[in-house]
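Notebook entry, cofactor series.
This is the third protein in the set we're modelling with a bound small molecule. For this one the ligand is pyridoxal-5'-phosphate. I'm keeping the input format identical across the series so the outputs can be compared line by line later. Sequence and SMILES below, as received.
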Amino acid sequence: MNTQFERQVQHHLDTHDTPYLLIDKDKFLANVNSLKQRCSRYHVTLRPHLKTVRSLEAAQHILETTDAPATVSTLAEAEAFAQAGYTNLLYAVGIAPSKLDRIAQLRARGTDISVLLDSIEQAKMVSEYCNTHHCEIPALIEIDCDDVRAGIRSDDPLLLDIATSLNQYQGLLRGVLTHAGGSYQCKNPEALQVMAQQEIDAVVAAANKLKQRGFQCEMISVGSTPTAYFAANFDGVTEVRAGVYHFFDVVMADIGVCSLDDIALSVVTSVIGHNTRKQWLLIDAGWMALSSDSGNDSIPGYGVVIDQHGTIYPNLRVLKLSQEHGIITDINGDPVPFDTFPIGSRMRILPNHACSMAAMHTQYIVESQHSTQSDIWPRIVGW
Ligand SMILES: Cc1ncc(COP(=O)(O)O)c(C=O)c1O
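Returned structure with ligand:
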């Protein structure tokens, strides 16, 4: 056995019941630091997305101060982080009217949280709510930069109409935001660079249009992990959002944003069966522990195998899942190393998609080679 981390993992491999979610804290901290440094080199603010980690303890390592900017994807996260004292939040999922009461309550308690929208209906609902309740709820207009999810195109005439509706009662327009979800399907550095520039161009064009018409546009926000790492510069934008980089995952390794060795998150699982006829290894981690997220189009299965000594078996993949069973085979049809994985032994599975693997669990076991103790970090669950 080599490193202290491996000894720690071995200890916990033996003490915690499987399956469970493990953070390699040293890799996590290195990942956190790498984007922080990149953004500081490019003089752009980083507004980390906390939707992947969903943990107060993790946030303490990500955000240096309680007024540091952060992004959330649920009001459960917003409320938990606000309760812990964080005051600068962006709720980056389109707003539904039923959620405005909770947003207003957060703002009344001193949390500067903004919302996201992309229609006149939403803009009217927000401004009417503010008028009726004598409050302010700042909003960003979502711009579609790649036809993948929500938002309007930057050249859509709706942009100015939404801004006008928002400002009908009070100055609620805070800026524009886009998210290049299409970057997860990019296959090489050139495509990632093009996507990163496309993301920036879209949101800067929208911001310029608004400013030309006299609207304030204090936030010009871009972000996805791949584009945050591949943008040639961040000229014209005020901030970068990204979240999955805290852990990284097989999708990010597949498209070249990180290596498999950078992945800080895994599920520890026990071997519960050998089927030598089919060359199957069975484990006690099914979709309840791993999620059934198959990543992007080019990734086979539901996660990569790593053994208890940290050796990665890139060709051993969880190829089938049921609720509490995973079936591992070699993607090239080579023999499965049953001797390395006797029944009862433990292994780790690296996530295709860290957000969805983490979402299946209520806590992390956190290990570091600098500590003989492991920590437990609870996860914020629900909406
Ligand atoms: C609006 C928004 N911003 C930022 C992100 C973070 O991107 P990533 O998961 O690539 O780090 C997401 C992820 O879905 C998002 O929806």
